[in-house]
Amino acid sequence: MELEFRINDFEGPLDLLLHLIKDSKMDIMNIEIEKITTQYMNYINSQEKMNLEVSSEYLVLASELLEIKSKMLLPSVKSEDCEDEENDPREELVNRLLEYQAYKDITKVLQEKELLRKEIYTKTPENVSNYVCEVHEIHADVTLDDLVNALKKYYQRKLECKPLKTKVTVNEISVSSRRSDIKSILKDKKRISFFELFPIVSKDYIVATFLAVLEMAKSRELIIKQDRAFEDIVCEVVESA
Q1: Is the dihedral of CA 122, 126, 131, 137 positive or negative?
Q2: pLDDT on residue 47
């Protein structure tokens, strides 16, 4: 397991040096080596308690800075045969700092992506067939009690939605007329919700329609189905009828 050592908030000597350069508002391509070396050494000396292994890394860079500083103070010597200037002693250090800065920038982007990725949760696929309800078509299993209970609940909901003021008109509703109406509906739609057969909320109309449905089911003029438990009850025309 690798351990990460820091001096205060700096992850290493290059991090400290980069901070001092930015804090002094220097151009990283043209480092004032004498000034930055003084600041670096002052910072190192201000640390009273440092891990020996960590301090050695900082001291190595300190020696490099002192070496670069000494080279910068020496007069440049040009050979008569070579008109090109000598390499800048700071060049290698600048390249290392630029590379380190690039890694820091990439690390920041990766950290942001890591935080975003932590908000995403995945799950490996699995067989969910055990959780899928089988479709059961109910024909004769739809009992009279089922229809009565469903009709009671439907009627209660309709009464709750009924306006307070209504105009009552007396129309005689017969079972035969409702039976004829339902035949016409099934001729066009072939399949309809049981509750759609009760557009008018009145006891006479509901009773007549309910009896008409029962008679038609008994005579096999329609089939009463329920695809799944607690789902809608539907009336479906018998193809052979």
Answers
A1: positive
A2: 72
